[in-house]
């Protein structure tokens, strides 16, 4: 999503952001989001399925190279400089033109244009000083984040992921602190806490059901975990978002 005009707030996974022109937001399936926009707003939104590129790209893992598609809020909100905003806006306009033609071949053109947006943003991020850590370290951390996404329901310790990555827990922690600014254990806990928040706003589920789905066999332990790392109890969180 690209804002070209407007103001207000936008909340993704319970993180509130101030909307301003030239901001791009990337979201992935499962994220919780809400709007509180004021005034005259304009921009572009594109929704596509996770399988949209499968028949087009040789590697189904291709999109995982883009950090802004990892579902981590801090890395998925990008403010574009003016020259880049103009370039990206032109690509959005081209996508709209192709979509209106409603021809099978044009779906491939839309895929090409979407990839152009991703590659252009990725190139922009790579030019920023804070993004210049590259090579095997970044690959390891991305693999760690992907593994956490797959296994956080049942694997809660850094050593579990270090084993899957064929490195030591100390090495994983050092890499996590160096690149993500936090230890590996915190990355895992934050993912569990986020999923708990996502499920707690589904009022069809009881708190005990949420705890069980996340691998907490003891409801009281889930409450202690949530309050320790979330600052409030699950009941208070649910009431706050009712």
Automatic annotation (TrEMBL):
Keywords in alphabetical order: DNA-binding, Transcription, Transcription regulation
Pfam families, per database record: AraC_binding, HTH_18
Domain HTH araC/xylS-type: start-end pairs: 142-240
The keyword Transcription belongs to this UniProt entry's keyword annotation: yes
Gene3D superfamilies the UniProt entry points to: Homeodomain-like (1.10.10.60)
Official protein name in the record: AraC family transcriptional regulator
Organism (species): Pontibacter amylolyticus
Lineage: Bacteria, Pseudomonadati, Bacteroidota, Cytophagia, Cytophagales
């Amino acid at each position: 999503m690209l804002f070209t005009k407007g103001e207000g707030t936008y909340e993704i996974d319970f993180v509130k952001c101030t909307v301003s022109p030239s901001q791009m937001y990337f979201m992935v399936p499962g994220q919780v989001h809400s709007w509180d926009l004021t005034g005259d707003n304009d921009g572009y939104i594109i929704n596509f399925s996770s399988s949209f590129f499968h028949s087009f790209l040789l590697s189904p893992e291709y999109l995982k190279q883009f950090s802004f598609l990892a579902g981590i809020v801090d890395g998925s909100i990008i403010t574009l400089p003016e020259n880049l905003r103009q370039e990206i806006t032109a690509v959005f306009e081209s996508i709209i033109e192709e979509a209106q033609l409603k021809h099978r071949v044009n779906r491939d053109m839309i895929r090409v244009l979407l990839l152009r947006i991703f590659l252009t943003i990725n190139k922009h991020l790579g030019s920023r000083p804070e993004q210049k850590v590259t090579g095997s370290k970044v690959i390891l951390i991305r693999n760690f984040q992907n593994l956490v996404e797959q296994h956080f329901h049942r694997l809660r310790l850094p050593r579990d992921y270090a084993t899957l990555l064929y490195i030591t827990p100390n090495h994983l922690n050092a890499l996590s602190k160096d690149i993500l600014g936090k230890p590996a254990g915190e990355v895992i806990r934050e993912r569990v806490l986020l999923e708990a928040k996502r499920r707690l706003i589904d009022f069809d589920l009881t708190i005990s059901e949420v705890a069980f789905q996340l691998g907490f066999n003891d409801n009281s332990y889930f409450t202690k975990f949530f309050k320790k790392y979330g600052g409030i109890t699950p009941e208070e969180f649910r009431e706050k978002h009712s």
